[in-house]
Design brief:
about 350 residues, Glutamine Phosphoribosylpyrophosphate, subunit 1, domain 1, Serine Threonine Protein Phosphatase 5, Tetratricopeptide repeat, alpha+beta
């Protein structure tokens, strides 16, 4: 039984392409990975906020992740951490590893015994590596796409993973994929650091499925996290707001039909009194998708209020109260808008 378990552990990182990266603006660290094995995200990614990120693959030694993060936590560079973990190993030429440290320095190792095509590419804030690939074009395209893509770190990494997949990826086929991004208090309500935590365990098109899941995740969890972090980290407020604004504009330009997403984004930006035009667009799109929802009408009212259009705010809040006449919050909102209108006059 033990030998079977060890075989599964070793193979789960075998034949893989991954990207390890960080965003120095937001102190985000992440790993995105895909492979023709079951649940590649179970073994390869190792990430710790304020420390760094590691991908351990090929004939994967799962201790490489904890060992490397421990070295990075001692302020060791990516190269120093890589050398330290390889020195502990009895089979370094069978391993592949990629590391990015807190300073954006990257390091990768591809052992001589890894199965062709195997290799890596490195740049500032990024390490790309793969084995049993269709060719070097996989890692080359990943690095190129990551470098030229804008937006949140997760978007850049996922775009790179898609590029690797489109370039050929794992020469044996497709099965699983994963993306993990961490930043301090980036998790739900700030309870932990998991800004993005997605896995596709078994799917004929795992990278496509990962993209589908991410398209939902970014609005439901990442956008609220960025807005919360903007309030918590005043020195990075504008950076986090710009990241969230990019998600707002992306949603508005998409064919997404989720009134909850548009309503949530509009409400948060209305409270901040930021980007009034786009905020109104999002609120109206939510209303168009759910025309009888009183809470969305309340959001439209708040968006008009944030834009300084108090008469419209009164009108929309009145509409919401026609549906829920006893709603105490709506009544308070209406009073707020009427007072603002009265003061202007």
């Amino acid at each position: 039984m033990v030998s079977v378990i060890m075989l599964i552990v070793c193979l789960s990182g075998y034949g893989t392409f991954s990207i390890v990266a960080m965003d120095p603006e937001t102190d985000e660290y992440g790993v995105a990975v895909a492979s023709r094995v079951l649940d590649v995200g179970y073994i390869v990614p190792w990430v710790k906020a304020d420390v760094g990120a590691v991908a351990t693959q090929a004939y994967s030694n799962p201790y490489f992740g904890p060992w490397a993060l421990e070295e990075l936590s001692k302020a060791k560079s990516a190269d120093e951490a890589m050398r330290a973990v390889l020195a502990k190993d009895t089979m370094p030429e069978d391993r592949q590893i990629g590391i990015v440290d807190r300073n954006g320095q990257s390091a990768s190792h591809t052992g001589n015994n890894t199965t062709a095509w195997a290799g890596h590419r490195n740049g500032p804030n990024v390490a790309v590596q793969g084995n049993i690939l269709t060719g070097p074009e996989v890692v080359d395209s990943m690095l190129a796409v990551f470098t030229r893509t804008e937006g949140p770190l997760a978007e850049r990494m996922l775009s790179a993973l898609e590029a690797g997949d489109n370039a050929g990826g794992d020469s044996r086929g497709k099965q699983s994929a994963s993306i993990v991004v961490m930043t301090k208090r980036g998790g739900y309500l700030g309870v932990d650091d998991r800004l993005v935590d997605l896995k596709v365990i078994d799917n004929p098109e795992p990278v496509q499925e990962l993209r589908r899941q991410y398209e939902l995740w970014q609005y439901a969890f990442m956008a609220p996290a960025y807005l919360r972090l903007a309030g918590e980290q005043k020195e990075k407020e504008n950076t986090f707001l710009k990241k969230t604004y990019s998600l707002l504009t992306k949603a508005l330009q998409s064919d997404l039909e989720s009134p909850e997403v548009y309503n949530s984004l509009a409400w948060e930006f209305a409270l901040l009194k930021k980007y009034p035009e786009e905020t109104l667009q999002a609120a109206k799109k939510a209303h168009a998708l759910a025309p009888d929802d009183a809470n969305i009408m309340d959001t439209v009212a708040e968006a008009y209020y944030a834009a300084g259009k108090y008469e419209e705010a009164v009108k929309w809040e009145t509409n919401a109260l026609q549906i829920e006449p006893e709603n105490a919050f709506f009544l308070g909102q209406l009073e707020k808008y009427k007072n603002a209108l009265s003061e202007r006059k």
